Hints:
By secondary structure, this protein is α/β, with parallel strands linked by helices. Helix content is about 25%, strand content about 20%.
Amino acid sequence: MRLFALSDLHVNHAVNRETLQALPAHPHDWLVLAGDLGEKEDHLRWVFETLGPKWERLVWVPGNHELYTVPSDGPDGLRGVARYEALCALADRYGVLHPEAPYETWPDDDGLVICPLFLLYDYSFAPDGLSPREAVKWAAASRIMASDETYLHPDPYPTREDWCRARLAATEARLAALKGKRTVLINHWPLRLDLVRLFRIPRFAPWCGTRATHDWHVRFDAEVVISGHLHMRATDWRDGRRFEEVSLGYPRHWRTEVGATGYLREILPGPAAPELRHAGPVWHR
Length: 285
C-alpha cells in the first residue's frame, strides 16, 4: 500500500480534467488531494466521482479556490464557514477523509496518523512588523492582489486572519491529543515561510500561510508534511522531516506530454532522508 498526493487540480480547465481522467487505477493505494480542486461544489463532486473509484481512499483538504463565493453563485451562495462545512458534508457523502473527520491511522503503520488540516493564512508571511492591511498594501505596491480579497469571505468571522486563528487553536488541540503518534500533516498552504518560493511574484507571500505553524513539523512529529498552493513542486527537508509541495497547477504550469501521472508524488513509503551535504530542494518539473 502506498500514499500518493496531488493538489491544485483546477478542473475548471478542460485539459486538467482530461489528464485526470487518464490517471491509471491504484485500487490498493490512497490519494491525498491537497486543495484547489476547483471553485464550485460541482468541481469537487466531479473529482470525487472521477478519482474515487480508482483509489482505495481519497483524502481532501480545502484550498482558497474551493472557498470562493463567486458572482455566479447568486445572492444565496454560501460564504465562509457555511461554505466550508457544506464541502466537508459533500466529502462525507463520497467517503472522503477531510479536516473535520476523525484522523485515521495509516493501515500499514499503526503509529502513523493521517492528519488533513485546514488552517488558512494570517498575512504574517509578509515582512516583519506589517499588519494584515499593511501587508496587502505592500503587495499592491508591486501590482499583486489575491483574488481571495474579493471572493474568499470569512463569515461569520470579521476577517480571514480571525478565521485562521480559530482554525489554528482548534487544530493544535486535536494534534496535541495524539500524544506520541507520528503524523502526516496535510494542509493546502505551506507551514513554513522558508518554503515559499515565488520567484516571479514574491509579494504574493502574505496569502501563503502563517508563521504560527513554523515548528509544527517538530511539535507534532511529522514524518511528512504535504502542501500545495505555490504551483512550485519540490521536496525539502527540515529538521530531518520531509516537506512535499505537490501541485499540478494551471495548464501553463505542467507539461501535457507528462500528464498528471507524471506529477503524482509518492508520499509513503517515499524517499529516504538525503545526506547532510545536500541542503537544497529537489525540484519536480
